[in-house]
Design brief:
This protein has 506 residues and is an alpha/beta fold. It folds into 2 domains: 232 residues, 3-Layer(aba) Sandwich (Rossmann fold); 208 residues, no CATH class. The chain contains 17 helices and 10 strands. The strands form 2 sheets. It has an 8-stranded mixed beta sheet with strand order 1-2-4-3-5-6-9-10, with helices on both faces. The chain has a two-stranded antiparallel ribbon with strand order 7-8. Helix 7 crosses helix 8, helix 10 crosses helix 12 and helix 11 packs antiparallel against helix 12.
């Protein structure tokens, strides 16, 4: 049974402009919605009873490697980090079940606490991804975190294995260009699976065994190797977006090595299959579109010359399905057609970064045929495939099942049909390396956990955040009545997270 610890937020409109890496759009904060978890929401893997083998696997396999801290390498186009920042590299096993086997490098950065006399310890962070270098968060911690947090913690972050400065991804990207982004029939679906499999094999050829071990559990074990090298008995952890998956896996493997765990914009930890993954993401985007419809009733910045937004959108989809919707140009429609999938991708891009004016401008330009628009990109990302396809089972049996899932999801999200990003991730996993089984939970007491999420988040839907909170014995869910992703930039969530991290007893 989950116990909620309520935190109250004052409703207000925050000012300021958020950084591009975090949430965007107009925001209004609500009071906390405290989560009372039910057995139906609990993630089975998170409450599994650990076996003896699982407990043994959490023990350190080798003596911690000493990191040699020094000046950080150039990070163009960013300026050199400040004098409080140091960088280092640590070697970790590629396969943690073979600690004496091949090793890989992980690039680490540290921003030293500004007030050593009041230092609490290490705050390990990850800004999301997968595929995003994480060390920049510590290198530029003075831009990311509040002065009070920087006084009390050494902020430490790293580029996860295979990412950025940690021995980057190498695969045959000419194969990736040949993969159908939206299979239209059984033949294209099989082509997608076959080419995905060939692409995965190319990664194994060019990267070696690392390509087989970029899963989040391996990253969580790397996190603990960094902790051990730092000489810390316990760490605090703040993860955003995909970083919440790293925090959840670390809690599962090393509960007694966590002092505090804050999860901002949480990924569903419950191992959802392809249909629920796509449904949750699609319903979230559909709800954002419904919010756009409501906002446009009163917001003069999203007027479509007297036309109803819903009727314009329906007409655009009808034209896209009929093959008569063309990309707009400065002087009128071009000869480049826009099908329904590209329209969905463009809608997703405009709804995720929620601004009513630009979103309706996008639809208005498509409708009139005049202007320039960004229709979004289709297709998966190698980092998503190497990490997410190994973390959970998103496989679909065949094209008939794929088509049936698409039809059911379209009924659940009728305005936008589906989430473009969620479908990209699912299709990238068809024919890829199979998922790795996750370890059970190791014994040990966890601290109370804080989960923070927007009520309307296209990338990490609220349903997943609820399941994340339900996965822990003691957790609070702080919701923010906004459209956005990454809540730490907003004053009240930042204050709640800072207070939680700073006041937890060691």
């Amino acid at each position: 049974m989950n116990t909620s610890n309520p935190i109250t937020c004052v409703s207000r409109k925050p000012g300021g402009t958020p950084s591009p890496a975090r949430g965007t759009g107009s925001r209004v904060l609500s009071v906390l919605v405290a989560l009372s978890a039910s057995a139906a929401l609990a993630a089975p893997a998170a409450v599994a009873t650990p076996g003896a083998g699982d407990a043994r696997r959490t023990a350190p396999a080798t003596a911690p490697e000493t990191m040699r801290w020094g000046v950080c390498p150039p990070n163009d186009p960013m300026p050199a980090p400040g004098p409080a920042v140091q960088c280092a590299t640590i070697k970790v096993p590629v396969d943690w079940s073979k600690p004496q086997g091949p090793r890989t490098s992980v690039f680490v950065a540290r921003h030293r606490a500004a007030d050593p006399a009041r230092r609490i310890g290490v705050l390990m962070t990850n800004p999301g991804g997968p595929g995003n270098p994480g060390a920049d968060t510590a290198m530029y911690a003075d831009r990311e975190f509040s002065p009070e947090l920087l006084k009390r913690f050494d902020v430490v972050s790293f580029d996860p294995r295979g990412i950025g400065r940690s021995e980057g991804i190498r695969c045959d990207e000419t194969l990736a260009a040949k993969i159908p982004d939206r299979p239209r029939d059984a033949a294209e679906f099989e082509q997608l699976r076959t080419l995905n499999g060939k692409l995965a094999k190319s990664c194994l050829r060019q990267m070696g065994p690392l390509a087989d071990h970029m899963d989040t559990e391996s990253v969580a074990r790397d996190t603990d190797a960094i902790r051990a090298s730092l000489g810390e008995r316990r760490i605090s952890f703040l993860g955003t977006s995909y970083g919440t998956s790293i925090g959840e896996r670390y809690a599962r493997l090393f509960p007694d090595r966590l002092r505090a765990l804050a999860l901002d914009s949480a990924v569903d930890p419950a191992g959802a299959g392809a249909e629920r993954f796509l449904t949750d993401g699609s319903v979230a985007v559909n709800d954002i579109f419904k919010r756009l419809l409501a906002d446009c009733e009163t917001d003069t910045s999203c007027v479509l010359k007297g036309r109803k937004l819903i009727s314009v959108t329906q007409e655009l989809f009808a034209r896209a399905d009929a093959g008569t919707l063309m990309e707009p140009g400065p002087g009128g429609p071009t000869r480049r057609s826009v099908d329904g999938d590209r329209l969905v991708a463009g809608l997703y891009a405009n709804l995720r970064a929620y601004l009513p004016g630009p979103a309706t401008e996008f639809l208005g330009k498509l409708h009139s045929g005049k202007g320039e628009v960004h229709l979004g990109e289709l297709g998966s990302d190698l980092a998503w495939q190497l990490v997410l396809c190994r973390d959970g089972d998103l496989r679909i049996r065949d094209f008939a099942e794929y088509r049936a899932i698409r039809e059911r999801v379209a009924k659940a999200a009728p305005y936008i049909r589906y989430s473009s990003q969620s479908l990209d991730m699912i299709l990238g996993c068809q024919g890829w390396l199979p998922p790795k089984p996750a370890s059970g939970r190791a014994p040990g007491a966890l601290p109370p956990v804080l989960v923070v999420n927007a009520l309307h988040d296209a990338a990490t839907p609220l349903a997943g955040a609820r399941r994340m909170a339900a996965a822990f014995p003691r957790a609070s869910l702080l919701t923010v009545d906004t459209v956005g992703h990454g809540m730490y930039d907003l004053p009240e969530p930042r204050r709640a997270i800072d207070t939680y991290l700073s006041t937890r007893r060691n």
